[in-house]
Amino acid sequence: MSGQSRSGEDAMPRVEVLADELQEALRLGVKESPLLTFAVAGALGYVLGGGLTPGILARLVAVGIRTAVGLRAQQAITDWLGMEGWSKTARQT
User: Fold this and answer.
1) 3-state percent helix, strand, coil for the chain, nearest multiple of 5
2) How far apart are CA 37 and CA 28, in angstroms?
3) Are residues 47 and 57 in the same domain?
4) pLDDT (tens digit, 9 = 90+) per residue, 46-92?
């Protein structure tokens, strides 16, 4: 039992350091970009408050994955064909 309480005592300074680092990062975020910090805090509060159902979250993740895979596939094909300026040229015409 004393081994468990000792490991808990050892963890306290680390938790305090992490809390201080988080507080400093938040303070810096608010100072550099207050609107972004406000938007992230609002979104996080909405999600933690239960506003984002699992179905909606699954759809958002699926859209994000499809977008990332599509962009990566386009990049891979462009690299494979050696057509680095292809996407820029295609948009111009």
Assistant:
1) 85, 0, 15
2) 10
3) no
4) 888 888 788 888 898 899 999 999 999 998 888 888 866 555 555 56
